[in-house]
Amino acid sequence: MNVLENLQTAFSAIASNKLRSLLTMLGVIIGVFAVTTMLSLGQMATQAITKQLDSIGGRTLFVQPKYDPGRPYRSFTQDDLDALGSLPLRDVSSASTTVSAEVAGRSATLSLSGVKGDYAEQSPDVQLTSGRFFTETEVAGSAPVIVLSAATAQKLFPQQNPLGKVLRVSARTASGQGVVLQREQVTVIGVTQPASALFGGGQDSGIVPITFVWRSFAERGSYDVLQFRVRPEANLPQTEATLRRVLERRRGSDNFEVFNLDQFVQQFSQITTVLQLLLAGIGGLSLLVGGIGIMNIMLVSVTERTREIGLRKALGARRGTILGQFLIEAVTLTALGGLIGYLLTVLTVTLISLAAPQYFPQVILSPGVALLALVVSALTGVIFGVWPAQRAAALPPIEALRYE
C-alpha cells in the first residue's frame, strides 16, 4: 500500500468517526492555537512598540539626575546644554510641570511641557490635527499660548472648537515668599493628533513655550530631563560616551543617568521573548495532553481493527506497510489539528487587531510560525503514534484473524 492509499485510508477512518476524531484533535488544536497566538501577539506588540519608539525619535538620548535620599537634587541648567553644543546632537529638551486646568466648570490635571520654538520640526511624532504651533517670537516673549493633546481638548471643550478659547492653569510653586499659588491664562492655538495608548496617550497634556514655564512655574534655565536626537551621521555609542565625559567633568559621575531608546527596545524584546517562551511552554503542555489522547485513540483503533490487520498480513502486507498506515493516520490527525489551530490563530489575532488597533495596529502572521505549527503537530503524531503503530505491525497474522 503506497502513501496515497494510506492517506485515503486515514481520511476514511477520520470521517467514519467524526466526533471521536474531533475530540482526539482537540488537545492538538488548543496547543497549536495557544503557541501560535502567543507568538503572533508577541511579534505584533514588539513591532508596535518599536514603531512608536522610532516615531518618538530613533537614536534618542535621555539624561536625568539621580534621585538619592539625603542628597540635594540638581536640575540641569542652560550652561550644561551649552557645554554639549559641540556634539552632533539636536536638543529637544523640555521643562515640565503639572498644573490644574479649568474652563467653564470643567477641569483636568495637565502634564505641561515647555518646549522651544523648533520642537515641532525636531519631533516628527507630534502632529497637529488643527491650529498651529507657537513661533520663535512667541517663545522669546513667553507668550501664554498652548497646544493641547486631542484627548485633553475633547475633555475640556466637548463638542466645541477649542482654537482661540482661553484656559486657566494654576500650580503651587516655591518662591522667596514660600509656596505660592501661581495662576495664568493661556490661549489654545493648536491640537495634536491622538497619541498611542502604548505610551500614555490617554494622559491629559499640553505644550507651551518653555519661557512661559520658566516665567510662571519653574526656575529660569532649569531642566528636569535633557533629551537629544543623535544626528544620523554620528556614531551613537561614541556620542553617548562623549556626553557622559562632558557632564562628569561638570557635575561628577554619580548624580546623573543616561538612557537611550535602543536600550528600551532591547529590554522590551528580551521581556517579550521570555514571556512568549513561557506561554509557548504552557501551550506545549496542551500538545502533550493532545498527543497522549491521540496515542490512546490509536491504541483503541488498533484493537478495533485487529482482524483487518490480520487479514492484510495474511495477504502479504509487510510489517513496514502496517506501521506506515497507522503512523500516517496519527500524523494526519495531528496535522489537521495543527491546521485548525493555526486558522483559529489567524481569526483571533485579526479580531484583536480590529478591536484594539491602538495596541496592535498591524496583523503579523509569520510564515515561520505557520510552519512551526504544522511541523510540531506532525511531530506530535509521529512521537505518539509510534507505539500504537508498532503494536499493530507486530501482531501475528493468525492471532489477529482469530481475534473477536
Q: Secondary-structure blueprint of this entry?
A:
Elements lengths: L2 H14 L1 H40 L2 E6 L10 E2 H6 L5 E3 L3 E9 L2 E10 L3 H4 L5 E4 L4 H5 L4 E5 H7 L9 E10 L2 E15 L12 E5 H7 L5 E2 L2 E5 L5 H16 L4 E5 H44 L1 H9 L4 H37 L11 H27 L3 H6 L2
Parallel strand pairs: 5-10, 7-9
Antiparallel strand pairs: 1-12, 1-13, 2-11, 3-12, 4-5, 4-8, 6-9, 7-10, 8-9
Helix pairs in contact: 1-11, 2-9, 2-11, 2-12, 9-11, 9-12, 11-12
Could you characterize what this model shows?
This protein is of the alpha+beta class. It has two domains: 189 residues, no CATH class; 200 residues, no CATH class. It contains 13 helices and 13 strands. The protein has a six-stranded mixed β-barrel. A four-stranded antiparallel beta sheet has the order 3-12-1-13. The chain has a two-stranded antiparallel ribbon with strand order 2-11.
Could you give a short description of this structure?
With 404 residues, the chain is α+β, with helices and mostly antiparallel strands.
